[in-house]
Amino acid sequence: MRSILTLSNPIPNPPTTSPSHHHPMAANCLPPAAALSGGIAIRRLPATTARPSSIAFHPLSSSASLKCLRLSHQKRSKIHVSSGNFGAVVTTKCFASDPEQLKSAREDIKDLLKTTFCHPIMVRLGWHDAGTYNKNIEEWPQRGGANGSLRFDVEQKHAANAGLVNALKLLQPIKDKYAGVTYADLFQLASATAVEDAGGPKIPMKYGRVDVTGPEQCPEEGRLPDAGPPSPADHLRDVFYRMGLTDKDIVALSGAHTLGRSRPERSGWGKPETKYTKDGPGAPGGQSWTVKWLRFDNSYFKDIKEKRDEDLLVLPTDAALFEDPSFKVFAEKYAVDEKAFFDDYAEAHAKLSNLGAKFDPPEGLSINDEPPPVAAAQEKFVAAKYSSGKD
Ligand code: HEM
Asked: What domain of life is recorded for the organism (predicted)?
């Protein structure tokens, strides 16, 4: 027999502003039925002139998505379950994003990557949302960081963000489909998925980032690095130390330039086109750091060290990685040891993606299906003991 769940609270009025200006809590309250994979289909009661006082649910299989029904302004509310002749009371638990919707969004991002080859700009988007973090400011969101503020025009207009509106346009349909995923999570999800899809390391990500609510919460311009400052190594340290990152993080993260291109009409850096970029894929043009600029590997370090190909870009801040004695230790290592680069990159990328973020729940959410690393290592050990030795 099918159960009917009835909310005891009225649902909030439908939002009247554009999606990018929703209150984050309201945005995640009632995900569209289509987005609740294997969860609960929501049927709104027929529209009346008054606000509806109840809403009917038809549980289809599991109650997992109940966790993420947010009723209003983060209030924990009760859902009365009337199923046949007994009634139970379930307390909803609301997080910033819904894990099931995050997983579905990840699949949609993979499809987007396949058709548009937008890996590089997604990585840049995630980095520019997170990279405004200032560890010397305690308050959220004044401290900046991965909080979705980059969706607002005022921040997209910062010179460092030229062109990132294109990444936002690509992601907006996915955001519209999954109301239970915050912008802050979506940007970081897109970035980590892009790195992995391009052949890079698996990044130990967590989710549940809360979004800022309005453009007045955007950081001021000037927190991201310049590519050609008077003293590149000092400048990199000023900017990345402010984020609480280390020399190793700076060098590893710079390795993300293994992906993508620089375009003179956006950043002012790079050639309009080269033999490696004139045919795309994706929009043609720009100058890449590497030959295979849609493949995540350690070729960035090899190429910027050699500086032999005029068609490959080396920004002053890239060159600094082989000039500064402390950076050089890591850059030399990554040029010859891809595994070392991948390990350090994955760790630094995860750190970057968490900067300044306010997580709900505070410990974050995992959307990985595989067991945590410790359990996996134990499993491998046991399997190796009894296997034929091929593993
Ligand atoms: C170290 C300081 C950094 C500087 C000065 C810098 C500078 C730049 C510049 C000038 C561009 C070209 C943008 C354009 O014209 O479209 C660019 C692109 C890019 N940056 Fe960085 N970047 C830095 C660090 C990072 C980090 C930490 C990441 C990621 C972890 C990153 C990821 C990317 C990617 C993937 C692109 C290519 C975007 C595309 O092809 O659309 N960068 N960066």
From this structure: Eukaryota
CA of residue 225 to ligand 1 center, whole Å: 9
Between the two ends of the chain, the Cα-to-Cα distance in Å is 48
- What SS3 state is found at 223? coil
**Would you state the structure tokens that stand for residue 136, as one six-digit string?**
């010397």
Which amino acid residue places its CA nearest to atom 18 of ligand 1? 262
Q: How far is the CA of 182 from the centre of ligand 1 (A)?
A: 24
Q: Whose CA is nearest to atom 12 of ligand 1?
A: 262
> For position 364, what pLDDT does the model report?
97
Report H helices in 226-372. Answer: 232-242, 247-254, 299-306, 316-323, 325-336, 338-354
CB atoms within 10 A of CB 259: 27
Q: Is the CB of 119 under 6 A from ligand 1?
A: no
Kindly state if the Cβ of 266 falls inside 6 Å of ligand 1. yes
Distances from the Cα of 323 to the Cαs of 25, 229, 233, 303, 332, in angstroms? 48, 15, 8, 14, 11
Q: Give dist(CA 322, CA 317) in Å, integer.
A: 10
Residue among 257, 315, 353 to mutate when testing ligand 1 (max atoms within 8 A of CB): 257
Listed residue (38, 48, 63) closest to 10, CA to CA: 48
Pocket lining: 225 vs ligand 1, CB cutoff 6 Å: yes
pLDDT at 370 (0 to 100): 59
Q: 357 by DSSP, 3-state: which? A: coil
48-57, 257-266, 370-379: range with lowest mean pLDDT: 48-57
CB of 267 closer than 6 angstroms to any ligand 1 atom: yes
Overall average pLDDT of the 109-123 stretch: 98
The residues carrying an active-site annotation are 128
Instruction: State yes or no: pLDDT of 189 exceeds 80.
Output: yes
The pTM (predicted TM-score) of the whole model is 0.78
